[in-house]
């Protein structure tokens, strides 16, 4: 076994920023208006009934205090400082050179309503990156307006809406079909767009059966939304037939390419028959996740759906790149402007840094690394792989279960996750809803990590299962060397106690500030 | 949380010797005569060992003798033993023991469906239950998967009761054993009990109330009512999942029986097969069925009143199936079963059906003839 | 490109022999074996067609910087563009904090391992709550328009009604998003978006039209303060009173940069408040700085209808210690799939941290100074522009940082004027002539704290030259 890291998280006992500072403390100062300005316009420019009378209860601290406070908070965030094999999110290196490039004023201080002649640099990146994604997927046009994978699924739903409305069949094509194992955003966004949801259950092969799909599709089906492989690491080998069956019934077919990492350069959504697909640039394409965005769901579709795309669409006209806003059949916008531009630039940089061969190699590595993990995890007593009766090699991630360990020791997946951080290892992803697998966890190695990293991660799992048998209470009361002890969950559903702001907290608890607390 | 344990020492006797249960003293004698070894006590013992491993010295209330205490011998638990007067090896013992455990919030029992029925009939309103699986018949939704799983769950309830989810509507079902031994399966729904839900879906660390699938199902039921066609007979029930349709129509369902509606009015309650056949002979027929229990029997178990003739009238497209998503996921196999008694009819009705799980929400489920 | 001797800097296992060693441990002879699940006829036939790899950081940086330098930016040029993203000063400390790798790379660990980030999130909500005078603030959604869309759907859930009222002078960009979230009719959960007349003299809502349209089928009235065209809605209290009397929710959109000088929406009867996060320390990034917040009073009927992440302070197992976690985590789409409130997913949470740092740097005095400076300079710019022959300001008083400049009397179109200004290194205001607002050849100018009096004079001088 690898020697486990001796680790202790930073603990700063940091006050809430609202408790900090002193009257008159300043972190930023703005000049008074120039004399000529004041002279021309005077004071009291806000209508008196709308002029703010109270002082907002914000902290009054120095610039250094703000910097130090938030540096402390960053230090109390594990991030990717250890080993993070966070499944379904495909943890990658986020290149600093692209990070720094996007901080330059040539991008940071650019306005989306500038004349396109002054945006040719960023538009060239959009255009060329669109071309790269077209090659990877076989689609004809990509847009980047969606602020995440879920928003791209929503984009699909509203495009389907516009498509069927344009064909005069929106009142008939009312159903979206998906798998119970699809990411929750697929049924959720389709439902938010007004579609009825038909779920297909998993059957003995680990994926929904073709017969179930055949029974579900009809002239009421507007679209199907499906991912493949799924989060269990199972690839549905009937997917081509699925698409054929769905399209035969007239439905649109959307490929949620959330789990693209294991099939990059191997599969083409279009060649499998899909009409549209989605890539997550903040995961598969190397842009940082930042705790949940800014993110990008790159949405691509075939020419038949392109008239319905949200505007603007970046296209090349002669030697110039332009923003095409002239799409009368457009489904409308899912978000203002044209996307989380810096993330698109970073994703473009990732594809350029990898190249076609590098991308295919990354896919190989992620599948090799995951199968290596499966082998080692299968040797740890108390763990069981999802769908244990399916003996095929899994794709780039596999869902596992601590159910046997939990039954034996009472230590479940939540407890293990809490304990992992004590070793400097990021807690794993468990599972999306519904939890079909009991006590689930879903590791994904991707192409970034070394064998030593992966071994360390697995050794930590093995160590915790050992602890579960020898000292279960220690595991259940973990973590022990994190910035804080286990958070009590009792307030989170209690309207009398939950507090989403400091002012709510003070109101509900009569909380005194920290100086006062320390004195007591 | 205060926990009580009752063992039905004769539960499960019949299985190993080819009897289909041990309801009734004659069957017990027959089983013992065939060489049966009592299983329930040993299985209770396995559960208690797991409990004591997890929480050494935990408090537990038990009935005296082979109703409980005998099986906890030598296990590191702090027992309070309750004496049962006039113990005679019948269901009366179970009832008397529960009556004496009024201060326990959870009654754990070792037994099968018959025991579950006796236990649930005796539970007070605030008492929950959990079965250590020992019986031959276990159609009720109150059992843990294994004795060890039961022991682990008891430990969780004992140490962290606020992390436990509760299901107030677990179905208690039993089969007429005499009929079963004669080759007929006829499970009957006897009621509902409050049971702990095994922690396998939600992230316990998040705490708080869970998804309310009942509300979603009520949405599905309201949609069914909105879509009801005129001059059409709706045969509804039995069970809570079908009963929500009656509720959505502003009616009170006969939970353990079958009701009929036409044009918004209830035209029959707790109907038998002959009455249903008479009612359905004229109008178009729809049958509203609920997914109940863990076995997934849709037709032919507990609703034999819906005869082949009525099913034939309704046809494949006349079946309206409701089931909360958690019930679908809780099925032993992801399949629904049909056994109408007429194989050709079963074959005709089998295949994939839409199960309504909420308003505008459906899940495809395979209806199989087995 | 990786070769037998050279590995890729972003892939440890691209080192020579590394994959083979792993295969040996797995007991597989080839990589292809591991892909056994994929049928042969699923593999793509078209080869990848991608530009050559730029594996060295040096080459990659060169490509990125060369391309980006083809942009004209608002530091080199003098820009008066606003309308959804605005050029504000971003303190350097904000850039440092959002650039911290821990904040840039984290996903979703445990409440303990994410503690610092969760505290920063809570401080975002707490400080914004102090500016808004409201007790509940959700982590930001994708954009202001998305925030409004969710807020309208919240109102529909709360009231069981399906109509919302918005000003006819709404931003077409945000309105397009709102329509996406609300419509089309005849689908489940659709909400009708009805426009309200504006008072031509002030640009504010026409209260008579509001009264006429406020029936018992209205879920919410939405107005902005300041509004799309910069005007301050001084009848805010009256509007929310009318809405309440009709059983409708009052949804307000506010510019947080104005809240040092304009009344907090929590004090004039707003039920749900939305707004952009970008003014709070986020660079424009060509629109990539967008993010939208949603806030409300702390009443269960509101809290239960939020779509995303609500961060609550909580106790830990250690006496006297604070931690943070998600309140009502099961009501969103992660918890309930299609039965959750709308949907959620990755959003713009890094900007919550940027905004937290920004608000802590400014404090109460900073926001007051900022507001005074912006409104003074914007008003100054409006005065100076209105003095140019042929140029008028549509509503010369009662605006905050944006205002409408009309060029009808110059005989030139806004497009022509802006093209001419651009040759002088000035980005004129957003051309709103084709937005159906009946304002002729008009542009929406934005002036903030970054525009000095000298910048404004330069704009006016150049404009005179261009119009001459």
**CATH class assignment of the domain at 98-353 in chain A:** Alpha Beta
Q: Helix count of chain B? A: 12
| Strand composition percent of chain B | 25-35%
Structural class of chain B: alpha/beta
Low-confidence stretches of chain B: 200-210
Strand order of the largest sheet of chain B: 10-9-8-11-13-15-16-14-12
Q: How are helices and strands ordered from N to C of chain B?
A: EHHEEHEHEHEHEHEHEEHEEHEHEHEE
CATH topology of the domain at 98-353 in chain A: Aspartate Aminotransferase, domain 2
Mean residue pLDDT of chain A? 95
**Largest beta-sheet details of chain B:** 9 strands, mixed
- Number of E-type strands of chain B: 16
Spatial separation of the terminal alpha carbons of chain B: 42 Å
Number of structural units classed as domains of chain B: 2
Q: What coarse outline of chain A follows from CA principal-axis ratios?
A: globular
Describe the largest sheet of chain A: 7 strands, mixed
Shape of chain B: elongated
Mean pLDDT of chain B: 82
The helical percent of chain B reads 25-40%
Question: Which secondary structure elements does this structure contain, and how are they paired or packed?
Answer:
The complex is a heterotrimer of chains A (520), B (370) and C (468).
Chain A: H1 35-41, H2 63-75, H3 96-103, H4 105-108, H5 120-137, E1 141-143, H6 149-166, E2 175-179, H7 185-192, E3 196-200, H8 210-216, E4 221-227, H9 239-248, E5 252-256, E6 276-280, E7 297-301, E8 313-317, E9 320-324, H10 341-378, E10 384-385, E11 400-401, H11 403-409, H12 413-420, E12 440-441, H13 451-470, H14 472-476, H15 502-509, H16 514-519
Parallel strand pairs in A: 2-3, 2-4, 4-5, 5-6
Antiparallel strand pairs in A: 1-7, 6-7, 8-9, 10-11, 11-12
Helix pairs in contact in A: 3-10, 5-10, 6-7, 10-13
Chain B: E1 3-7, H1 25-33, H2 40-54, E2 58-63, E3 77-82, H3 91-100, E4 106-111, H4 113-122, E5 128-133, H5 147-159, E6 165-175, H6 177-181, E7 187-197, H7 213-226, E8 233-236, H8 240-248, E9 259-262, E10 265-268, H9 273-279, E11 285-290, E12 297-299, H10 308-314, E13 319-322, H11 325-329, E14 335-338, H12 343-349, E15 351-358, E16 361-368
Parallel strand pairs in B: 1-2, 1-4, 2-3, 4-5, 8-11, 11-13, 12-14, 13-15, 14-16
Antiparallel strand pairs in B: 6-7, 8-9, 9-10, 15-16
Helix pairs in contact in B: 2-5, 3-4, 7-8
Chain C: H1 18-26, H2 31-34, H3 57-68, E1 78-79, H4 92-98, H5 101-105, H6 115-132, E2 136-137, H7 144-159, E3 163-167, H8 172-182, E4 192-196, H9 207-213, E5 220-225, H10 236-245, E6 249-254, E7 272-276, E8 292-296, H11 300-303, E9 310-315, E10 322-327, H12 333-336, H13 349-386, E11 392-393, E12 402-406, H14 414-423, E13 426-427, E14 430-431, E15 442-446, H15 453-467
Parallel strand pairs in C: 1-13, 3-4, 3-5, 5-6, 6-7
Antiparallel strand pairs in C: 2-8, 7-8, 9-10, 11-12, 12-15, 14-15
Helix pairs in contact in C: 4-13, 6-13, 7-8, 13-15
